Amino acid sequence: MGRHRLLVRFIVIGFTPVSPGADVMHPAPGSDDRPSYTSLVGSIDTSGVRYVSTMEVQTSRKEIIEAMESMCTVRLQAFLDEHMTD
After folding, report:
1. Which of 41, 64, 68, 83 would staple 53 via disulfide (CB 3.0–4.6 Å)?
2. Domain count, the chain
3. For position 67, what pLDDT does the model report?
4. Taken in order 64, 67, 7, 42, is the CA torsion positive or negative?
């Protein structure tokens, strides 16, 4: 399923919005040869009680999450999978 179709399907169905959270964890100071780790969590229920997460590895010390689009797509799909029966 394409990301645009996924987003339209999500909006049209009218679910309560997913509650997301994201963070980047960096290596200790002076460890520039080690990667940073990113995470994105998102609720998969309409009450915001159950969450699932996605983690990625990226360039050291980069604060912007490089894979944010794909991580968001995975989180939205997990929410839809939880609620769609077709």
Report:
1. 41
2. 1
3. 94
4. negative
